[in-house]
Each structure stands twice: as structure tokens, then as C-alpha cells.
């Protein structure tokens, strides 16, 4: 998933990836799919990834393929079927 390591490998194997999704949003995700952050710039994403790396003793890598968001960016729409109907 990555070709450019930017920190030392972690013996526990946790990797934090910095990359973009197909829409161009900057994401930070871990290899266990338990962490996700969304950012307005590469610098902000990388700064967050380095802070998380220190907390989790993980390595940080730049993703060479688009990341898939764990949480959708799509707006939550009103579902007319879920609204109560007047009698």
C-alpha cells in the first residue's frame, strides 16, 4: 500500500498511512482500520500522523494508492420513509 516510508518500521507492525482518497481529500488511516483523520492539507495530515506515530509507536508511510474513507463524506439526506406520517 505504500512505497515511501518516512519513519522507522515498528516491531508491532502498526502503520499509519497518509494519502488522498479518489476525491482528493487528505486522510490519515492506520493499518488496523481503527484510526481515521481528515485534513485540509498534506502538511496537516502529516503532522497528525507523526503525533499519532509517537502515541502508538507506529511507522508512518505515504500511501501510493488512493485511500478509501472509513466514514463516508456523503451528506446525510432526509429519508422521507423514516418520517412519521400524519393520520
Compact overview of the structure:
This protein has 1 helix and 5 strands. With 87 residues, the chain is of the alpha+beta class. The longest helix is centred in the middle third of the chain and has 15 residues, at 42-56.
Overall morphology: globular
Strand order of the largest sheet: 1-5-2-3-4
Order of helices and strands: EEEEHE
Total strand segments: 5
- The gyration radius over C-alpha positions equals 17 Å
Extract low-pLDDT stretches.
Answer: none
User: What portion of the residues fall into strands of 2 or more residues?
Assistant: 25-35%
Nearest-integer average pLDDT: 83
Count of alpha/pi helices: 1
Detailed description of the structure:
The chain has 87 residues and is an alpha+beta fold. The chain has one helix and five strands; from the N terminus they run E-E-E-E-H-E. The chain has a five-stranded mixed beta sheet with strand order 1-5-2-3-4, covered by helices on one side. Strand 2 and strand 3 form a beta hairpin. The protein is globular and about 40 Å long. The model has no long low-confidence stretch (mean pLDDT 83).
Amino acid at each position: 500500500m505504500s512505497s515511501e516510508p518516512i519513519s522507522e518500521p515498528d516491531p508491532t507492525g502498526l502503520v499509519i498511512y497518509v494519502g488522498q482518497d479518489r476525491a482528493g481529500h487528505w486522510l490519515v488511516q492506520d493499518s488496523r482500520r481503527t484510526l481515521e483523520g481528515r485534513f485540509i492539507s498534506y502538511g496537516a495530515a502529516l503532522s497528525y500522523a507523526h503525533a499519532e506515530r509517537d502515541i502508538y509507536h507506529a511507522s508512518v508511510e505515504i500511501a501510493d494508492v488512493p485511500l478509501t474513507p472509513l466514514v463516508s463524506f456523503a451528506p446525510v439526506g432526509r429519508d422521507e420513509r423514516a418520517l412519521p406520517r400524519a393520520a
